[in-house]
Task: inverse folding
């Protein structure tokens, strides 16, 4: 997958994850970074858990879905680590 594909999939997945998890995005660069890292996380998990080789492989709905799920996990874990609720 080319750099432009990574950026486009990252932007879409990061923006969607930002909307679902927070109600707003993280800005253009933040959405791209979250989506790209989410694609790496989602691709790894898809391969490890479901045996799907090369789950993020271009600009298509499956790649966006895998990156979206990874981005959701990234946001959720980062919130648990950096913003723990105090009781």
Result:
């Amino acid at each position: 997958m080319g750099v432009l594909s990574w950026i486009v999939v990252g932007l879409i997945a990061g923006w969607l994850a930002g909307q679902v998890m927070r109600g707003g995005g993280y800005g253009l660069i933040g959405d791209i970074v979250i989506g790209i890292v989410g694609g790496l996380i989602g691709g790894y998990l898809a391969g490890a858990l479901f045996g799907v080789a090369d789950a993020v492989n271009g600009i298509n709905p499956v790649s966006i879905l895998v990156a979206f799920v990874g981005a959701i996990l990234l946001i959720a874990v980062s919130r648990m680590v950096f913003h723990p609720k105090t009781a």
Remarks:
- The radius of gyration is 13 Å.
